[in-house]
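[09:14] KT: can someone run the structure on this one? pasting the chain below
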Amino acid sequence: MNPVQLEIFRALFVSVAEEMGYALRRTAFSPNIRERCDYSCAVYEADGRLAAQGDHMPVHLGSMPVAVRRAIQAVPMGPGDVVILNDPYEGGTHLPDLTMVSPVYEKGQPSGMPLFYVASRAHHADIGGMTAGSMPPSSDIFQEGLRIPAVKLVESGKWNESLLQVILANVRTPGEREGDLSAQLAANRTGEARLQQMLGRYGKEQMQRAAESLIEYTERMVRKRLSDIPDGTYEALDYLDDDGFSEEPIPIRVAIRKRGDEALVDFTGSARQVQGSVNAVLAIALSAVSYVVRCLLREDVPANAGLLAPVQVVAPSGSVVNALFPAAVAAGNVETSQRLVDVLLRALSQALPEAIPAASGGTMNNLTLGGVDPDSGSAFAYYETIAGGMGGGPAGEGDSGVHTHMTNSWNTPVEALEHALPIRIAAYRLRRGSGGAGRHRGGDGIIREIEFLADMDVTLLSERRRFPPYGLQGGANGKCGENVLIDEGGEAFLPGKISFRARRGQILSIRTPGGGGWGRPSPMGTG
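[09:31] RB: done, structure tokens below
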């Protein structure tokens, strides 16, 4: 295809994924999806290769192709069918992330192979398990909630009511879950309709050729960028604080072997899978590598299967970066994914010292709340992540109070929180001075203080409470985060991973890490 045609089809395919996201957000019930935009949508070729994605959540988008391929292999799909899954060992990430996959046929095509697939993934605020919000400091997958293999939720346009009732019977907020599932279905139907319109206008041969050409183009651009990086082996080591059961730090090691226009990313030497929930499945490791490869590209290159075509990933089976059943994985998606990015960028900083920024906050600061609202008498379950500081870099200072790297969610507005939950936000401000010093300072983290207006269950899964975000090229580290419970008895510092029963009147203060600084400060003391 000529460049003009290629750009037109790139915009068309991306617009399908973006419109799916708009439909999902507008129709969702939960604040986590409606306000925080914790969802992702994408378009896939008939063989399951990623053709285009929306600018949604990197940790979802990089891992979702594994789930889509599994759905295609496991369940034959006809017109009107929708397959759902969340099993981490079949392409899922952690159990709250529910993925829906739908085939796309030409209008009037009653049988045969689908021409494309569309998929949506959304983080549901509860999917059962031992704690409200389904993000517990767990020791196996069974404690984390309902595990769903690839199975039809919708067949020939009709809900599988038996399966739907099983799902709703295992969650704390069934009305909200049903609403969010319906929103995902609406997103998939939107994607199907738009692709069918494109097929009607351009024909299947041109559409399929366009998708293939976009993937080939991205691969060429990745190979060109890799060829600009000096050949060599670049190694790095970083640590997770702990797994919530032991205080032992958990090493994650990488060696990037770059030769010509190809690279091998080898995580050999990383810790074996652990008791706690920081284990990441293989899809997460692939997602982190895909994200970092995309960050290396200077141009606005289409995000599709071509990103990883010249890159081989080695993640030892049974390790913390490729955990096996029945490992606990709730935090692997949100916390270990961030550390994978940190260690990859640290390794690449040896090859590209003037291009790689210092570490960002390195944690999603996961918070879940659950209980019974004393005013309405109804159950509630809520999940959110809290922003931190971005690392300073060669281009300038890091931003403050933003979600970085593998998360791309929004900050939840105070009004939305207080409307949905029996809580009051006692403080919400930047954590001044938490970013590392340097020629370009790291961004500051956030202080969010939550006053509980009722007794409720609280779970925290957070990192960078012991090992700070690193500075680069002479910049200082960012400050570690802190979790503090405040009541009439004073302040009590909490571990990074904990589940507890909060009492009415207590205040939880979450103080998130700042980003690392980049470059040595100037002799005049500025920066």
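[09:33] KT: thanks! The longest strand covers residues 250-259.
[09:34] RB: yep, looked fine to me
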